[in-house]
């Protein structure tokens, strides 16, 4: 799948504002006001692939922006340098270098910026809702985000690290985007991190146990579907559909019988397949840990190594060498 890239470089403030509206507010444009300057510089590089959006925005403008709600997306900006302030109702977020701010989704807001360098990462709300249901067991109607700041400084660090990683990944040349597992796992990583980093109801809501029992045959169908299609993109809805039951019911059955979730079970199956491939691979013929991990949807080397050590007690590189 090709990456869509847009680049803008201009000293015309009106052209800069049009470019921002074209990408971020095509239907309900943002309203800008600016302080007169001589030839202010504006530069933006934006990448989009299957819903994952990254952007690096640098400018020397002194400007204020009245922004409509960013409906349908979950994302955040990180100030790398310069000055920025966001105001939403009575909430105000003053940025310094490294500050993370989530874009408001449910009401208009105001942004003031001066000479800023900012990194943006966002994904569709529908993708975040799906991951919330698959991993946290809550419906889209139950999911709500609140507040612009991360839940803690550790969470802010997590989002900064993720943003840097995603920006590097989507900018790197290569054919990794031809593997749908890689792309799906990358998008799910962004969604899951957003749910962990920013205040939302998945962090606090209590989940009632799904009523009814899943028949043994339905559970066997779910397991067989995971085993047979582990090399393909998969959601909880896919597993539940194969089992002939609901997502909540299949989650309850996996917890009861396997003490895990369907998606964690899938991850373990993929780890075992990667383990098998590492054992059979020949490093002298060009086989690499990264290549095998990516084949099974693990795009972040450190996380793959962590999961692998937990499951097999050794590093994946050692398995490959021996």
Topology:
Blueprint: E1 4-10, H1 13-24, E2 31-34, E3 42-49, E4 52-59, E5 62-67, E6 73-88, E7 91-95, E8 100-102, E9 109-124, H2 125-136, H3 153-171, H4 180-197, H5 216-228, H6 236-243, H7 247-258, H8 262-280, H9 289-295, H10 301-312, H11 316-321
Describe this structure as you would to a colleague.
This protein has 322 residues and is of the alpha+beta class. Among the domains are: 4-124, Jelly Rolls; 266-321, Arc Repressor Mutant, subunit A (Orthogonal Bundle), CATH 1.10.10.60. It is built from eleven helices and nine strands. Strands 1, 2, 3, 4, 5, 6, 7, 8 and 9 form a nine-stranded antiparallel sheet that branches. Strand 6 (73-88) and strand 7 form a beta hairpin. Helix 3 (153-171) packs antiparallel against helix 4, helix 5 (216-228) runs parallel beside helix 8 and helix 8 (262-280) runs antiparallel to helix 9 (289-295). The longest helix is centred in the middle third of the chain and has 19 residues, at 153-171. Mean pLDDT is 89; it is low at 207-211.
Cα distance spanning the termini:
35 Å
| SSE-based structural type | alpha+beta
What kind of assembly state do the chains in view correspond to? single chain
Q: What are the low-pLDDT stretches, counting only 5+ consecutive residues below 50? A: 207-211
Question: How would a crystallographer describe the biggest sheet?
Answer: 9 strands, antiparallel
Order of helices and strands: EHEEEEEEEEHHHHHHHHHH
Instruction: Please write the CATH class name of the domain at 4-124.
Output: Mainly Beta
User: What's the Cα radius of gyration?
Assistant: 22 Å
Number of strands: 9
CATH superfamily of the domain at 4-124: Jelly Rolls
Question: According to CATH, what is the topology of the domain at 4-124?
Answer: Jelly Rolls
Overall spatial form: globular
Binned, the helix content reads 40-55%
User: What CATH architecture label of the domain at 4-124 applies?
Assistant: Sandwich
Q: Could you tell me the mean pLDDT?
A: 89
- Percentage of residues in DSSP E strands: 15-25%
Output the number of helix runs.
Answer: 11
């Amino acid at each position: 799948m090709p990456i869509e890239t847009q680049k803008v470089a201009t000293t015309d403030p009106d052209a800069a504002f049009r470019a921002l509206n074209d990408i971020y507010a095509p239907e309900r444009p943002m309203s800008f006001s600016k302080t007169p300057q001589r030839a202010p510089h504006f530069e933006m590089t934006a990448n989009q692939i299957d819903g994952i959006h990254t952007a690096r925005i640098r400018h020397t403008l002194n400007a204020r922006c009245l922004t409509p709600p960013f409906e349908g997306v979950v994302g955040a900006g990180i100030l790398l340098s310069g000055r920025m302030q966001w105001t939403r109702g009575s909430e105000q977020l003053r940025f310094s270098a490294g500050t993370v701010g989530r874009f408001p989704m449910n009401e208009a807001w105001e942004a003031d910026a001066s000479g800023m360098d900012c990194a943006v990462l966002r994904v569709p709300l529908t993708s975040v809702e799906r991951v919330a249901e698959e991993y946290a067991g809550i419906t889209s109607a139950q999911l709500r985000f609140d507040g612009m700041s991360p839940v803690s400084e550790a969470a802010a660090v997590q989002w900064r690290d993720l943003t840097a990683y995603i920006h590097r990944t989507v900018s790197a040349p290569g054919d990794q985007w031809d593997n749908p597992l890689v792309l799906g796992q990358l998008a799910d990583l962004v969604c899951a991190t957003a749910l962990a980093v920013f205040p939302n109801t998945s962090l606090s809501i209590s989940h009632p146990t799904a009523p009814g029992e899943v028949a043994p045959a339905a559970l066997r169908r779910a397991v067989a579907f995971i085993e047979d299609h582990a090399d393909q993109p998969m959601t909880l809805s896919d597993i539940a559909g194969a089992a002939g039951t609901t997502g909540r019911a299949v989650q309850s059955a996996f917890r009861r019988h396997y003490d895990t979730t369907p998606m964690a079970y899938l991850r373990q199956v993929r780890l075992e397949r990667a383990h098998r491939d590492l054992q059979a691979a020949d490093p002298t013929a060009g086989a690499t840990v990264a290549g095998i991990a990516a084949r099974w949807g693990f795009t972040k080397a450190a996380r793959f190594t962590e999961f692998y050590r937990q499951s097999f007690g050794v590093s994946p590189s050692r398995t490959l060498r021996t």
